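Hi L., both proteins are below.
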Amino acid sequence: MDGFETRYAEAQRLARRERIRKAEERDRRDSRISDWDQAIFARQAAEQRLLVQQRLTQGYHQSGERQIGGRWRKDVHEMGLRSEGNPVLKYFVTLVPKGSRARASWDKAHLENQCPQKILTLDFPYIELNREFMAALRVDCDGIFLSPAACLAALMEQVRDGRVPCLPHIIVGDLLDDGRYSRPHFVWLLPPGSAVWRSDDKRCRSKPIQLFDAVARGLAAALLDLGADPAAPTMTGRMKCPTSPFWHTITPNDGIWPTLSEYTDYVDTSAGRAVLVRRAAAAQSGLGLTVSNAIFDTLRTEGQRLLAEWHFGADARMRGSRGALADHLHEVLAEYAEKSGHEDKTVSYVTAKVADYLVAHFDPVKLRARP
């Protein structure tokens, strides 16, 4: 017993020494922060508090013009917070990391830590949810509906047909000046406390992560006729922000919250992304699967050749975001399709799917170096 007590006392002594060392290191670090730096930090904190107060009392005001979602916006003004009195959006807000850990942006490709105040971050048009604990199944839709009501009616039909278990909890898209509803995101939220843990920790289980990805693909597969994009990544947590004044948001479902296993009773979780992209190209182009597949294969081969050529040639088109690269590839493939005799407008749907799919899955490591 005496030996145990001696080892315990030694452990306490070492722990005290470590605490003292960390305290001294902290003091030295704090001493290096000048009064000037402290004044700057204090002023920045005061400015953030003022911005929050103005946001709460005066609403959101856009200054100048900004290009968001492919079109210019100006004079955007919205009073209050969308999450007030809305249980779905309140829950959504909890899925966004706190403070300066939240990442948002004016475009979907370059998300960054914008400010330390979460309430201000939630006004940005694009946002990223907690990527370690995933609780939002997002389906990108490339369709344009006559109105938000028409979009909701189309989704209701899918629910009645049993293709999806319920309406999305959130629908967020661009309400155009002519009343049409463009390229919405459909978001299904898992029940509170049911988020899927995704981590490098050895205790993290891979099967729930795989199921999350499969269910997201299954939801996209069920909505191909509405313009769902199966090539979109499923686990990035990035999406149009439903609390942003720049989008039109609907929360049609606050009562049905299926678990991942309950989704599998409705959606097909077995189809791979490559198969779904082909099916989407066929459905959204109206060309039929046989014709669409033939064009898809031709464009895919040419697209793979172009990406390899641009990569090894250090082409400037490879230096931007994946979204910009997809636009460049789409443009060149469209010209190639036209020269190959595929100038029909419906072929552009196939071209877009091929470009998006190739860029989303482009991995330079897998390319063979030129001899």
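That was the first. Here is the second:
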Amino acid sequence: MKPLKFVVIGSGWRSLFYARIARAYPDCFNLGAFFCRSKEKAQWMQEETGIKAVTSPEDCRSENPDFVVVAVNKDSIFQVTREWALKGYPVLCETPAAMELGDLQELWRLRTQEGARIQVAEQYFEYPVFHAAIEIAKRGYLGDPYMVNISAVHDYHGASLIRRLLGTGMENMKVYGKKYVYPVVETDSRQGFIEDGRVSERERVRLTFEFEGGKTAFYDFNSIQYHSRIRSRHLNVQGVRGELDDWTLRSVGEDNRPREYQMIKEPFETGNGIKEIYMGEELLYRNPFYELGKINGLPQDETAIGTLMLGMRRFIEEGTEAYPLSEGLQDAYVRILMEQTLKSGQMVESKTQVWSL
């Protein structure tokens, strides 16, 4: 099967993920070019990745891409996504899809009234460990899940995982909470380890989500959790028959006796990346690249994004969405609500949006 050809609009940190994925799986993906804002940035990207970098939209179009990845800054994502979608290209846009409610509504209008083909690169539900956690919730080990306590990812990512773990879909909710500031020693970063003892003030956000159906989520996040060797990340999901506590399941069986299981991660033979995840003998997750015969894996972030990229073929050829646009818009809408409650100090309530009807 011919590799999917794509171009990346953007030259930031996030853009480099797509280069690593394309380089790891060249028979799946062909990254034709990066589109950069300046010749200096284009030169840097080309030297950094070995992939062509251009500074004009015409050069991107000349690559005849199957789809376009929009990986620009958050304030520009909506406009750039709209621009390339209206040119007729399938677009995979980075998160959030837009920062303003009116822009989210416009993206839905573009899809429903103008036939724009847009997908949102919300990847966390395809992280191997989170995919496995969602499977446990779906398969009934907890009963009907009614509570999530998540301290692992931020904003719209958290909204996505909460909705998937609880199965609340587009259900309306109340959101309230508070922001705190604490000092912490920096130990890691995107550029590597930090060991000079520097201390920074970091915001910790704690929010409660009360869904109209009675389910609840407790969101707790500090941005340093992404890059720290002294701050961990946690997940707890509870239902009437059990709980998933990080990667340990405690559940009551059909005989009403409690049992405990561990999620076991099987790496690729090369030692890189997660190939499969089991609970006992039960398969919870299989890496889609392993299913394609690959013997090398990637970190969870690249694996999840790569899974969405594989989904772009089905989206282009069949119209099957990798991550429904309606869900990506809902995630971004929840981010707006989170921001509103933190700024006002008041509880806010969601309203049914056009993509939820």
